[in-house]
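Hello again, I could really use a second opinion on something today. I've been puzzling over a protein and I'd love to understand its fold better. I'm sending you its amino acid sequence along with the backbone structure tokens. It would help a lot if you went through both lines with me. I've dropped the whole record in just underneath, so have a look.
***
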Amino acid sequence: MPRFDLDQRSRDGRSRRTGGLVLVLAVSLLSARCSSGQGASQPSSPRPTSSTSASTSSSASPSSSASLSAAPQPSKYTQAQLASRPCLALDGHDLAALRISGEGKQESGKHGATCAWKLAGQNVSLALDLPLSYAKTMTKNGRVTQVPVGQHQAVQAEFQRICFIFVALHDTDHLVGTTTIPDRGVAQDGTCPAGASVAATALTHIR
């Protein structure tokens, strides 16, 4: 299992954690396994009796069956494709589900293109090709934890009202990351959840 180390030393050289100088966080790269349905097993439902089956089949309408079969499937792109056009990582269905009004705004940065959205007073920026060196810099002096993002494990760092989230899909030199900054006066406790929700949704569009 691939992993990357995030240095937790503060600027004066002292450890921010008594247990050591470096926090080692494992990052799952088993995206293929997750996408193929090898996640947590679902509890089996009891087998319906013949009368239950009959009533179920009689109550199901053709329109409801059609709506289930017509459920929209997310468009899939390679990580490299989304890295150059990150706003494609959230489609119209995603924007509605996340309650984001308006399209994302693409911008150019030191490490390639980013796309920014506003979610419940949180300004979330998404990038899809970030180097490990950048992740180490952004998490160096933050409060670092390992958190689930969708079906993946991510490194999360909170630093001065800013929340950074990094996920490795294929290798640790091409990370998917979000940077979330709350509006002035907006509660900070929603900052990391907003970034995590955007990251988790973006990952559903990567094949």
Q: What stands out?
A: Residues 191-203 form the longest helix (13 residues). The helical segments are 31-35, 50-59, 62-69, 79-84, 92-97, 132-139, 191-203. The mean pLDDT is 76.
